Amino acid sequence: MAGDFNTESMLDMYLFENGQLLEQLQETVLEQKDADCFDEDSINEIFRTMHTIKGSSGIMMFDNITAVSHKLEDVFFYLRESHPDNVPHVELVEHVLEVEDFISSEMEKIRNGETADGDATDIIADLDRFLNMIKNGGQGEEGAAPENVHEEPKHFYIAPVATAASRFYKIFIHFFPETEMANVHAYKTVYALKEIAEDILYSPEDLLTDEKCSETIIKEGFRILLQAQCSEEEVRELIGVGYDIEKVDVFECDANQFLLGFDFGDTQPQPQIDLESSVEVIEAKQEAKQADEAKAEEKKPETPKITPGDFVIQSKEPGRQKKLAKDKPKGEKAAFISVNVSKMDQLMDLIGELVISESVVLQSSDLKVPGLNLDNFNKAAAQLASISTDLQNVIMSMRMVPLTNTFQKMNRIVFDVSRKLGKDIEFVMVGDSTEVDKNIIEHISDPLMHLVRNAVDHGIETNEERAASGKTEKGKVTLSAKTEAGKVWISVEDNGTGLDREKILAKARKQGILEDNKPDFAYTDKEVYQFITLPGFSTNEQVTEYSGRGVGMDVVVQNIQAIGGALEIESTPGCGSVMSLKIPLTLAIIDGIVMEVGTSSFVMETGVIKQFIRVKEDMMIHEPNGDEFVMIRGDCFPVIRLGNWYGLEEYQESVEDGVMLILEVEDRKICLLVDKLVGEQEIVVKPIPSYIKKVKGLSGCTQLGDGSIALILDAPGLVE
Q: Is the dihedral of CA 678, 679, 680, 681 positive or negative?
């Protein structure tokens, strides 16, 4: 390889594309783990995935990844071609996941600038034994030399003698103009065709040594000469048409035309004129050809009539088609581009600054001069507000990522832990399409792992214990997600034993956590359950691979609190537990109501405010313990004086001088007393600095138009 060849961008693409493939691989395997066997589509998909990873890893010279990918590819090649009926499905799933783990680990080393030096010898040996076992009808042969299912062609550039079964093709591949590193994509295509090739030549030749090669391929196309014993359909299937390839032209020719080289022309090669045969012979050949074409046309399956404008896909069953959508524009193609996350963060910050600057302009004191005509200014300001809102929506949608991949990782954890513990567990995912900010994804992976693992280990009983208590032998763990009131709610629910209140209290008493003068019954269930989140707290008597060390739940709480979230625990003895993560959207632009209390400014999201109201003193109810309530149209609501809540100075103590806000969160209502309302404003939500201790009822801060700082109120935190 030339010394000036840019391998850095190649490496980035390798990591990105193979990362996507591995995520897809894990999802496919976990979806099929409870089946009796892999279906045909899954087998083909896994085979193609491993073939692609093997090829790209070979190009990058990651030999260990190439070797283990090739071995798993061998297994699925045999499954695809031989269709054996003696395959241990669960064992095969474990082998695939083991390979996925190994490749993921090696790729993580590469990302960190380390050497991908993992030893795959044991994994390859296990795959060899597994392959020999299924080949021998379930009886493994000790010490038998593993058979390589599909060896790469030893002969590559020297054309072999053509056999009667040999077919010759001229292939012209068009890449999209925006395709980066087209030379690498072209080489991957050649690598895929090597599986079937008797002979293969391509142009340009120096795909990896000539850095101008990519530009040539985009401009002039990529040309391939292929000799193989396969059909045109098989050739097209191996090449495929993905996000990088726009069009593929495949022309079948004879041996003489093949030897002419890369003379494609504008059309398919024309048939040669037969000058030696008689007219009768030529006519007889033509009639025979027409008869063959007519028979082939008759054999084509009849397809149902499709209304013009319908978008259809071909079903696996011949002659059947499925309508997907009406009036899909012809030729519409989704295009994607990968962008560095730091650039997205920078763009988000700029949008936030734009919103703040807009507020500064609109709230300028220069606009309050009496008699000033602001009609044109107000029109322009409204247009600016509309554009900035659209920008916000676009950038937020770009930052939002579905929880699907994160949830699939939890599916993997349930599979691994349940297998090792010998528990039969059903894992259900609800709301995995819920989208959250990418930064939140990064913070919740570890907490979710601990919660799911604890649900399988602690929560779900053994099969025997469940049967003895009259439950179904199969336990159930449900992972769900939803968005509500500017929060992301992620819950882990199990139908196991639930939390033992007395056992937790006994452990807390032993560790000296309980107050001396407070009896056990004075502790609410919520307070007791929160003890399990303390560092070093564990009710397990024995330390196992997964629990008993007193770490895990404290990590969950720390990570969630770091992004302004909270953990809520609910449990019913004998029925199960629910662990809920409540996470604020700390990187958002929201519509809020600005209010003042004394000399301080606060913001409340408009979505939770149901009403503003002025109240009279005679509407108030005062309890001896200091709690206050207000009667509004026959309903009694608890009252929070915001000035008293945060110990502020110079706030309005009289309810008649202030404004009451009725807040509603999850069917619970409270009234919030503030001095006055400033108005509605778009708010750029910023997290509270880490050096400030978490304060109940606050979720963030923001900068107002006059440059002052306002605190953003957390309605659920106030309601609790």
A: negative
591 beta partners: 682
- For residue 234, the SS3 value is helix
Cα 58 from Cα 39, distance rounded (Å): 28
| Cα four-point dihedral sign 392, 394, 399, 402 | positive
Match 């009822």 to its residue by tokens: 697
Query: Which of these ranges, 540-549, 617-626, 693-702, has the smallest mean pLDDT?
Result: 540-549
Close Cβ partners of 119 (under 8 Å, ≥ 6 residues apart): 64
Is residue 103 within 8 Å of residue 24, measured between CB atoms? no
Task: Give me the phi and psi of 593, to 5 degrees please.
Answer: -105, 120
Return the number of other C-beta atoms located less than 10 Å from residue 420's C-beta: 13
- Rounded CA-CA distance 384/28 in Å is 46
Q: What is the CATH number of domain 167-259?
A: 3.30.70.1110
First to last CA, the chain: 64
Spatial CA neighbour of 454 closest among 546, 541, 550: 546
Q: Are 80 and 26 in contact (CB under 8 A)?
A: no
- CA torsion through residues 676, 678, 681, 686, sign: negative
Domain boundaries, the chain: 7-135, 167-259, 342-367+377-400, 403-584, 589-719
> Residue 130: in which H helix or E strand, if any?
helix 121-135
Strand order in the sheet with 676-684: 676-684, 589-597, 600-605, 709-713, 698-703
> Do residues 444 and 490 make contact, with C-beta atoms less than 8 angstroms apart?
yes
Q: Which of 413, 403, 401 is nearest to 30 (CA)?
A: 413
> Cα Rg for the chain, rounded, in angstroms?
34
Looking at domain 403-584, its CATH architecture is 2-Layer Sandwich (3.30)
User: At 445, is the secondary structure helix, strand, or coil?
Assistant: helix
For 342-367+377-400, CATH number out of 1.10.287.560, 1.10.357.10, 3.40.640.10, 1.20.58.340 equals 1.10.287.560
% of the chain residues with pLDDT over 70 = 79
The answer to whether the beta carbons of residues 707 and 717 sit under 8 Å apart is no
What distance lies between CA 687 and its chain's CA centroid? 25
CA 1 to chain centre: 36
Q: Is the pLDDT of residue 148 over 80?
A: no
> Rounded CA gap, 55 and 288, in Å?
44
Instruction: Burial-class residue 162 by CB neighbours within 10 Å (0-12, 13-18, 19+).
Output: middle
* Class of 589-719 in CATH: mainly beta
Burial class (CB in 10 A: 0-12, 13-18, 19+), 330: exposed
Average pLDDT in the 190-209 region? 79
Which of the listed CATH numbers 3.30.230.10, 1.20.120.160, 3.20.20.10, 3.90.79.10 matches domain 7-135? 1.20.120.160
The tokens 């399990």 sit on which residue?
532
Matching residue, tokens 């179904």: 472
Spatial distance between the Cα atoms of 482 and 491, rounded to a whole number of angstroms: 9
Tell which wins on pLDDT, 584 or 656.
656
H/E stretch holding 529 reads helix 525-529
Q: How far is Cα 649 from Cα 662, in angstroms, rounded to an integer?
A: 23
- Mean pLDDT comparison of 161-175, 302-316, 410-424, 514-528, highest-scoring range: 410-424
Nearest to 57 by CA among 72, 43, 79, 42: 72
